[in-house]
Each structure stands twice: as structure tokens, then as C-alpha cells.
Amino acid sequence: MDESHAFCGNLMGVVFIASHVISAHAVHWPTQSDRAMAAETRALLCLFILSAQFWSQIAYGQHWSDKHWVGISLFSTWTVVSIFYRTYLWASGLDQQQRAAEKAVSCGRGESAAAAAMANGLKQQKKVA
After folding, report:
1. Are residues 27 and 61 in the same domain?
2. Mind listing the UniProt keywords for this protein, alphabetically (predicted)?
3. Do 57 and 102 reside in the same domain of the chain?
4. How far apart, in Å, are the Cα atoms of 55 and each of 5, 8, 42, 71, 85?
5. Total domains in the fold of the chain
């Protein structure tokens, strides 16, 4: 095996760890939009890992047994599940509704922070004019 395969293996290890950390902590994140971001990140990392496994299998097929395809099928499954979950969140609109509700609560008056800033800016412009 050459340096490119070693680099790919190290990079894949970093992505494994990042994927685990995100998944382990996403359950405890308070908002739906945060969990949606975790789902997007998980899907992206699974795609990276899956592409690295395919590249490794093709580039170094003589060094791998048929068992390498087990890992590829496992990450294919995880990738598909994470993409389906993210698609579900997008289609249901939960993340967008949650963001709007969070902005309304954070503003304290039931309006978004951007709308409040715009209203204050218009009031100040009228005073100057």
C-alpha cells in the first residue's frame, strides 16, 4: 500500500470519530434545527466514508478480501438511512417551523429578530427625516 492509501485511511478514521461524536451528542441537542444539522452532517460524513471505501476497494482490490464489501454495504445502509431521515425532516418542514418559533421566542414579543430590527430602523429613519 502506498502513501495515498495510508492518508485515505487516516482521513477516514477522523471522519469515523467526527461522525460518532455528532451522533452521540445530537440526541441531547435542544432544538429540531440542531438535530437536522446533525442529520445533514451525518449524511455527508457517511458519503465521504462510503466514497473512500469504494476508492480503496477499486484501487487496492488485490489487498482486500471479499469481506471488505460488508463494510461498504454497512455504510451504504447508514448513508441511505441518514439521507432518508434528512429528507423526511426537510419534507415535513419541522426544521423551518422550529427556527421560526425559536426566533419568535428569543425576541420575546412574538416577532422575529430581523423584523424587530427592521421596524426599529424604519422608526429611526422617520425621526431623522
Report:
1. yes
2. Membrane, Transmembrane, Transmembrane helix
3. no
4. 9, 9, 20, 13, 26
5. 2
Instruction: For residues 86 and 92, give the distance between their C-alpha atoms in angstroms, rounded to a whole number.
Output: 10
0.70 exceeded by pTM: no
Look-up of cell digits 437536522: 36
| Alpha carbon of residue 56 to chain centroid | 24
In this structure, what C-alpha cell is assigned to residue 129?
A: 427625516
Same domain, 109 and 82: no
pLDDT mean by block of 10 residues, the chain; 129 residues? 77 81 80 80 82 78 73 80 82 67 64 55 53
- Residue whose C-alpha cell reads 438535530 in the numeric block: 35
Instruction: Show the domain range for 119.
Output: 95-129
| 82 and 23 belong to one structural domain | yes
Q: State the SS3 of 41-99.
A: HHHHHHHHHHHHHHHHHHHCHHHCCCCHHHHHHHHHHHHHHHHHHHHHHHHHCHHHHHH
Q: What is the CA angle 89-94-95, rounded to 5?
A: 80
